[in-house]
Amino acid sequence: xxxxxxxxxxxxxxxxxxxxxxxxxxxxxxxxxxxxxxxxxxxxxxxxxxxxxxxxxxxxxxxxxxxxxxxxxxxxxxxxxxxxxxxxxxxxxxxxxxxxxxxxxxxxxxxxx
Amino acid sequence: xxxxxxxxxxxxxxxxxxxxxxxxxxxxxxxxxxxxxxxxxxxxxxxxxxxxxxxxxxxxxxxxxxxxxxxxxxxxxxxxxxxxxxxxxxxxxxxxxxxxxxxxxxxxxxxxxxxx
Lengths: 113, 116
Description:
The structure holds two protein chains of two kinds. By secondary structure, chain A is an all-beta fold. Chain A has strands spanning 5-7, 10-13, 19-24, 31-37, 44-50, 53-56, 65-68, 75-79, 88-95, 103-104, 108-112. In chain A, the strands form two sheets. In chain A, strands 2, 4, 5, 6, 9, 10 and 11 form a seven-stranded mixed sheet that branches. Chain A has a four-stranded antiparallel sheet with strand order 1-3-8-7, with no helix packed on it. In chain A, strand 9 and strand 10 (103-104) form a beta hairpin. In chain B, the strands form two sheets. In chain B, strands 2, 4, 5, 9, 10 and 11 form a six-stranded mixed sheet that branches. In chain B, strands 1-3-8-7-6 form a five-stranded antiparallel sheet, with no helix packed on it. By secondary structure, chain B is an all-beta fold. Chain B is globular. In chain B, 0% of the residues lie in helices and 57% in strands. Chain A binds chain B through residues 4, 6, 31, 33, 35, 40-45, 48, 50, 55-56, 91, 93, 97-99, 101-107, 109, and chain B through 4, 31-32, 34, 36, 41-46, 49, 89, 91, 93, 99-104, 106-109.
């Protein structure tokens, strides 16, 4: 069974530029999560989807971040414009449903210069 | 607000030692607790999931316990090997009023180094 797929793995951009991350969850997983992990910290939730509905986006900086999950499968997270403080690893995870074990992708390491 | 703390932040042991990693959380209202492993520059690999009604889970040389009432979990690694070197993260799924399901709240992790 294929795991959670993320691309790109690495991205370097200048501040004020836009950037997008893509995630393909494990087949059949209804719940999809985007987390951000800063250096030396644990991941923190940005947004959680149940199928195509964003059910928890309270931690998403909505002035510059947006996300979508079309058809309840793949998801895209976008930042526009990027700031220096956005440098982090962006992790996507999926689970069968609420309360089930979460499986993480390899992450996208973003560096904003 | 739920907070997760992991002690120690770093640990170095010689190969073959048994060791314990500690995790504490401030609110006992959780659905489950999960232990993850993270290698440098990689994503998270799930090691063990303990439901709130369970006391422990075992997988190979790993054993995780949960004492929900005291807000503590331990990850026991038997006969450590250099390949066990990684950062170990503990995370809880908190119960949130009027919300069906939640995301995980993570600790900062314990970085383990096992020398040969």
